[in-house]
Amino acid sequence: MSTAASDTTMSYIRKHYFATPLNSAISVLLALFTLWVLWSLFDWAVLKAIWGKGLNEECRAHEHGACWSFVATRWRIVLFGLYPFEEQWRSALACLVMLAVAVLSCMPAFWSAKRLPILWVLGFATFFVLMRGGVFGLTEVTERDWGGLSLTVFIFAAVCLLGMPLAIIFALLRRSELPWIAKTMALVIDVIRSLPLLSIMFTFAIVLPFVLPDWAIGDKLYRVIVGYAIFFACYQAEIIRGGMQALLMGQEEAAKALGMGYWHRIGYIILPQAFRNALPPTINQFVITFKETSLVTIIGFFDILASGRAAAGTADWSFATIEMYLFVGFLFFIFVFCLSRYGAYLERRMAVGSR
């Protein structure tokens, strides 16, 4: 750090935290309290913790530290849920495939309207084949046996894959020049956005089979994904529409004057800039979507949160509830933190929000 930057930082600290004797006393007390909390957490989570596999009796006898033996012993249930033990390598490989897709999506070489959808479709198809099996000599594992992290990743990827094209369609219909189309789409979006996500999941999981013909019912998991994708699309459509409204009207008018058709104007002028303008809320929407996948546990799916409860729900490990929630929370934190940091990088690269 340069001398000028250091002086600026010290000036800021003196001005905001040590300007008066009272401010100085409060700042010192809060700093000491923060250090005490951090030291207590470090002491509990590291210094006094129990490490190793299968040491539940030692954890019961030693109550003053964290029992990370729970994670070492029960991590398979948390990550893979009900997936057959001998086939769990497929679930792990499927998650790695989607991780690779996410990493490749961050590379500018794939930032095109053709490459990015192809990458996600191929990656998701590979993920599904690995999880479901029944082809290429893989044992078939039905959706009712899926669970853990892989189910959470599957729901999130499927919702985004279905929801993003729907969001673009909804946004275009919302700004249609035909009033009856625009008003109808606005009503649909506003109604769905006013409903809790959980009520939509319940509707698609439980109510919808009563009004659909037998051939259209399908599996409960896919009905929930469709309902979640529609919910995601309605929110994302308003984000995209906001990005479109931020554009200068003269750009579309100039494109019309040059003789460009509707789809060329949308594909080459409107949508690229709209997505650029809507980048911060879009990243936020992806983060919210990933976190809200945990709601599926309420309607009977064995996602990572339900798998964690099952892992800590036995008599041998019932005392490790805190460690279980910390482990699951850490997995969520890794994804959300990486996504938020990547979003911040994109904002700096594209100078979004600097105007």
From TrEMBL:
One of its GO terms (cellular component) is ATP-binding cassette (ABC) transporter complex. InterPro entries: AA_ABC_transptr_permease_3TM, ArtM/GltK/GlnP/TcyL/YhdX-like, MetI-like, MetI-like_sf. Pfam families: BPD_transp_1. One of its GO terms (molecular function) is transmembrane transporter activity. It is a multi-pass membrane protein. It is found in: Cell inner membrane; Cell membrane. Its main location: membrane. The keyword Phosphoprotein does not apply. Coiled coil: none annotated. Residues 149-343 form the ABC transmembrane type-1 domain. GO terms for biological process: amino acid transport. Belongs to the binding-protein-dependent transport system permease family. HisMQ subfamily. This is Inner membrane amino-acid ABC transporter permease protein YhdY. It comes from Thalassovita autumnalis. The gene is yhdY_1.
